[in-house]
């Protein structure tokens, strides 16, 4: 496949830029040629989005909703094609890829209807002739930058609200996973999205850096690693008007209390550790287990994981050789006797980047295995004695993206859940997402919130999960207008 940039409504000639090769991590075979976009091409894409903004932001909500629905329908019609390419490009299982295509479609459908039903607030003032209300106006051109672990799902989670709220954009997927973004650009042509409204450019980190620094970019919605987030903040520090939403790395804790339903807890903790071969920012990669059930839990957990997560069947390959080597280097830090499952994978794999699930005993919370984001099929298990100790171990991390709490005790759900330093706390479940719930991390896991309603601060209870979060809309700016008229 030859991937080409999508700028101002058309695909540029594949030969216009230097290119690099994309490989299938499951087989190490070449699958696509990706352009390395020049700064001139980035400029063309941003200029196109800038020129398209006045007309697009003036379209009615109903018109934008119709475009989003048409995009969702068109992806749905090519669902399997998207899923197969996502699996080949990223290394994930086909089953996992299908779920993510479903969720990409849901991103467009959600924002297509959200904008039709949005409300605003009006407040009374002491002066009875004056009411205040909130009006959100579209802000301009956004840079939408996504990582390689859930390529289509995360890119569409940015593109859909950007379009829905009347903004235009330039999207850049990770250099490692460009193919489904290219298929999406074909869909933009098919539904006749007006030229320039959404542009997609390909390339490496320097392409992303050119994009965020461009003077016409009004805001950046970025998902990726914490170090890249810091770099983006540095690169845009002088552009004070640029709105930044940074969704960054995580090293999330799973806490298993002694009153948890053991079989259900094993299942949730295993999914949280090994889904998408551990390449999800929200994965629970350090499990803390109450001392009284530690041995029972661990033995069931090891048995369940070894039976359920089989490389090549229910577990995909990791994204690249560089990432394989990174995960491998962490595994070499563990002592042989600490491996309850798995082991150090071989050096220089030739037939894809496969790593079997690894479960490691760990009693040192300061170990890099407990502190650093490995982003692979690796989980540590450690015991705790008291609730206080569990909270302190979980919070002893520079990250604060998510946490998983496994307990039947309703009072403990709140008592512990509210003290965990995490943007999102799942209770007795994991990865349950409702797109209206604000999403984002604390500490080194990011700034800003994506999704959500118009509430500024919220504490939301679900039947199955608790979300502790504050909200910031990524693509709109809230302006307060004062109405001063005789009533
Ligand atoms: P990454 O290296 O930070 O890259 C993310 C994106 O940023 C890629 O498109 C990348 O392009 C681009 N980029 C690189 N340098 C840039 C720069 N200086 N300016 C602008 N853009 C730049 O992250 P990754 O390795 O792809 O993804 C893994 C990380 O993402 C993990 O840390 C994971 O936790 C995090 N993540 C977070 C969330 C969340 O919601 N919080 C969700 C998923 C993943 P190239 O790839 O072409 O270099």
UniProtKB/TrEMBL annotation:
<keyword id="KW-0812">Transmembrane</keyword>
<comment type="similarity">
    <text>Belongs to the aldehyde dehydrogenase family.</text>
</comment>
<keyword id="KW-0560">Oxidoreductase</keyword>
<dbReference type="InterPro" id="IPR016160">
    <property type="entry name" value="Ald_DH_CS_CYS"/>
</dbReference>
<keyword id="KW-0520">NAD</keyword>
<feature type="transmembrane region" description="Helical">
    <location>
        <begin position="459"/>
        <end position="483"/>
    </location>
</feature>
<dbReference type="InterPro" id="IPR029510">
    <property type="entry name" value="Ald_DH_CS_GLU"/>
</dbReference>
<feature type="region of interest" description="Disordered">
    <location>
        <begin position="1"/>
        <end position="22"/>
    </location>
</feature>
<keyword id="KW-1133">Transmembrane helix</keyword>
<feature type="domain" description="Aldehyde dehydrogenase">
    <location>
        <begin position="16"/>
        <end position="453"/>
    </location>
</feature>
<dbReference type="InterPro" id="IPR016163">
    <property type="entry name" value="Ald_DH_C"/>
</dbReference>
<protein>
    <recommendedName>
        <fullName>Aldehyde dehydrogenase domain-containing protein</fullName>
    </recommendedName>
</protein>
<dbReference type="InterPro" id="IPR015590">
    <property type="entry name" value="Aldehyde_DH_dom"/>
</dbReference>
<dbReference type="GO" id="GO:0016620">
    <property type="term" value="F:oxidoreductase activity, acting on the aldehyde or oxo group of donors, NAD or NADP as acceptor"/>
</dbReference>
<dbReference type="Pfam" id="PF00171">
    <property type="entry name" value="Aldedh"/>
</dbReference>
<dbReference type="InterPro" id="IPR016161">
    <property type="entry name" value="Ald_DH/histidinol_DH"/>
</dbReference>
<feature type="active site">
    <location>
        <position position="247"/>
    </location>
</feature>
<dbReference type="InterPro" id="IPR016162">
    <property type="entry name" value="Ald_DH_N"/>
</dbReference>
<keyword id="KW-0472">Membrane</keyword>
């Amino acid at each position: 496949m030859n991937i080409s940039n999508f700028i101002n409504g058309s695909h540029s000639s594949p030969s216009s830029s230097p290119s690099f090769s994309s490989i299938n991590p499951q087989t190490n075979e070449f699958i696509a040629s990706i352009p390395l976009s020049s700064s001139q091409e980035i400029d063309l894409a941003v200029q196109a989005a800038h020129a398209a903004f006045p007309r697009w932001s003036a379209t009615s909500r109903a018109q934008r909703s119709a475009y989003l629905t048409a995009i969702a329908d068109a992806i749905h019609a090519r669902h399997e094609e998207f899923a197969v390419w996502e699996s080949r490009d990223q290394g994930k299982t086909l089953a996992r890829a299908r779920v993510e295509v479903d969720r990409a479609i849901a991103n467009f459908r959600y924002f297509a209807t959200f904008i039709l039903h949005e409300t605003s607030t009006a407040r009374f003032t002491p002066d009875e002739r004056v009411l205040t209300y909130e009006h959100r106006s579209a802000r301009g051109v956004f840079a939408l930058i996504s990582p390689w672990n859930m390529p289509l799902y995360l890119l569409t989670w940015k593109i859909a609200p950007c379009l829905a709220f009347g903004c235009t954009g330039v999207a850049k997927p990770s250099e490692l996973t460009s193919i489904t973004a290219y298929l999406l650009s074909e869909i933009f042509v098919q539904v006749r999205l007006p030229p320039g409204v959404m542009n997609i450019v390909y390339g490496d980190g320097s392409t992303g850096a050119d994009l965020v620094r461009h003077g016409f970019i009004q805001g950046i919605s970025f998902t990726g690693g914490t170090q890249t987030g810091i770099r983006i903040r540095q690169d845009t520090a002088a552009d004070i008007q640029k709105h930044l939403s940074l969704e960054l790395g995580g090293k999330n804790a799973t806490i298993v209390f002694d009153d948890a339903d053991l079989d259900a807890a094993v299942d949730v903790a295993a999914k949280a550790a090994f889904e998408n071969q551990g390449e999800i920012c929200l994965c629970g990669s350090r499990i803390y287990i109450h001392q009284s059930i530690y041995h029972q839990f661990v033995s069931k957990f090891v048995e369940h994981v070894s039976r359920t997560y089989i490389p090549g069947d229910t577990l995909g390959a990791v994204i690249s050789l560089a990432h394989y080597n990174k995960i491998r280097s962490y595994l070499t830090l563990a002592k042989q006797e600490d491996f309850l499952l798995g082991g150090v994978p071989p050096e220089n794999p030739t037939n894809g980047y496969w790593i079997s699930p690894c479960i490691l005993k760990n009693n040192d919370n300061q170990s890099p295995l407990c502190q650093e984001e490995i982003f692979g099929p690796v989980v540590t298990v450690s015991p705790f004695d008291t609730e206080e100790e569990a909270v302190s171990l979980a919070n002893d991390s520079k990250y604060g993206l998510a946490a998983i709490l496994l307990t039947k005790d309703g009072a403990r759900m709140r008592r512990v859940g509210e003290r965990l330093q995490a943007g999102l706390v799942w209770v007795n479940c994991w990865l349950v997402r409702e797109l209206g719930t604000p999403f984002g991390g604390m500490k080194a896991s990011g700034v800003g919130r994506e999704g959500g309603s118009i509430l500024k601060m919220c504490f939301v209870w679900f039947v199955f999960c608790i979300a502790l979060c504050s909200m910031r809309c990524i693509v709109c700016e809230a302006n307060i207008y004062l109405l001063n008229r005789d009533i």
